[in-house]
Amino acid sequence: MDVELQPTTEPGRAFVALAEQHATDFATRAAEHDREGSFPFENIAALQKSGFMAAPVPEEFGGMGLTSLYDTMVGVSRLARGDASTAIASNMHLASAAVMRRIWKHRNAETPANVTGAIEGFMRAIGAGQLIGCGPATEAGTDLSSPMTELTPTEGGFLLNGHKIFGTLSPVAHVMFSTARLKREDGSYDRALAVVPRGSSGMEIKDNWDALGMRASGSGDVVYTDCFVPQAMALIEGGWGNLDADMALAPNAPLIACSLGIAEAARDIAVRGVTSLRKGARGKLLAERIPIQQLVAEIEVDLATMRALIERFGRLADEYLDRYGPNDDPQEARVILKEQQCMKWVVNRKGIDVVDRALTLSGGAGYMSKHPLSRLYRDVRAGPFMQPFAPYEALEYIGKVTLGIDPPVDR
């Protein structure tokens, strides 16, 4: 009986099948890219060529028509089994395409024609494998709901100034979809999305990513200094200081699922080890020893917990996204985001626990830099740092929503 997570839609099944094929290939290069801290350009090219990167784009624009967030989570988790860095990098593009698809789907008479036209152009380019999008959103000292990068009105558009960190996928992205804020006349702010092509004057993509894990994700800084953004390339969303579902679900739910893929890969390595290695004077198989069996059982319990939460949340998220367009129900959005934070808290922690137990089962071999468990352990530790939210902020958000208190985190 197969107990791993399974996609629920036809586009999802095609997407997951591609993820599994790519994971097998990418795993052969993951150690080298991790050791060198190099970006896997060849992996992204392969994902474009296969149609994986166009999955969320409607079929009429050349994509796969993947709309299920749950199926996206399953596919990204499968890719993470082979190379977690590539999984989180590709997800930044997939999320950009998914958000564009939802804006296009829910367009109405009030949607500016130039916005609809630009989105359709982007989706056609993605469907043709000609465009990669990146969504720099994270900044030091704030969270995703309150970007400090700022748009200032100027003739014909805006000037963009700010410093983004964790610009995952930036080494290869053609377009940056950067979150920003725009000051109103009363001194308050609107949240905005600035679309900035690579090479724009005032944009600097830094090659400065050097981290403990996810070393091949290309997550360097993106800095804007009086970078001109035409009027048509700035989408004013409102709600600065509040986290809406569209902004958080598509980019971040699949990132959480990466922890599952890493944990599953670690479990497989550990099981292969203990079922093939004999130790001691009697040459007893490690798998025959009761403490080893107990550790393996604890891994299985944690994996079952992770899968259950991901599947439950994926169902809830897909139901929510089917009912509503962008920002249609702020109260329900808060509830679904609370549930996402509950999932994140558990899945990130359980993923770390699983890989840690796998290291214990390796008997010290996994502590060596050349061992794949060393990379998996460093990669899985990235999960809790991924926004939204940091662990202590997640507890605040969960508690406030449950108690009926306005949930923006206290900064």
CATH topology of the largest domain: Butyryl-CoA Dehydrogenase, subunit A, domain 3
Q: What string, H for helix and E for strand, traces the elements in order? A: HHHHHEEEEEEEEHEEHHHH
What is the mean pLDDT?
A: 94
* Tally of individual helices: 10
Structural class: alpha+beta
Radius of gyration: 21 Å
In percent terms, what proportion of residues is strand?
Answer: 5-15%
CATH architecture of the largest domain: Up-down Bundle
Q: What is the β-strand count? A: 10
End-to-end C-alpha gap: 48 Å
Helix content: 40-55%
Low-pLDDT segments:
none
The outline comes out as globular
- The CATH H-level superfamily of the largest domain is Butyryl-CoA Dehydrogenase, subunit A, domain 3
Q: How is the quaternary structure best described? A: single chain
CATH hierarchy, class of the largest domain? Mainly Alpha
Largest sheet: 8 strands, mixed
Count of structural domains: 3
Would you mind describing this structure in some detail?
With about 400 residues, the protein is an alpha+beta fold. It has three domains: about 10-130, Butyryl-Coa Dehydrogenase, subunit A, domain 1, CATH 1.10.540; about 150-235, Butyryl-CoA Dehydrogenase, subunit A, domain 2; about 245-405, Up-down Bundle (Butyryl-CoA Dehydrogenase, subunit A, domain 3). It has ten helices and ten strands. The protein has helices at about 10-35, 40-50, 70-80, 85-105, 115-125, 245-275, 290-325, 330-360, 370-380, 390-405, and strands at about 135, 150-155, 155-165, 175-185, 190-195, 205, 220-230, 235, 280, 285. The strands form two sheets. Strands 1, 2, 3, 4, 5, 6, 7 and 8 form an eight-stranded mixed β-sheet that branches. It has a two-stranded antiparallel sheet with strand order 9-10. Strand 4 (about 175-185) and strand 5 (about 190-195) form a beta hairpin. Helix 1 (about 10-35) runs parallel beside helix 3. It is globular and about 80 Å long. The N and C termini lie far apart (about 50 Å). The model has no long low-confidence stretch (mean pLDDT about 95).
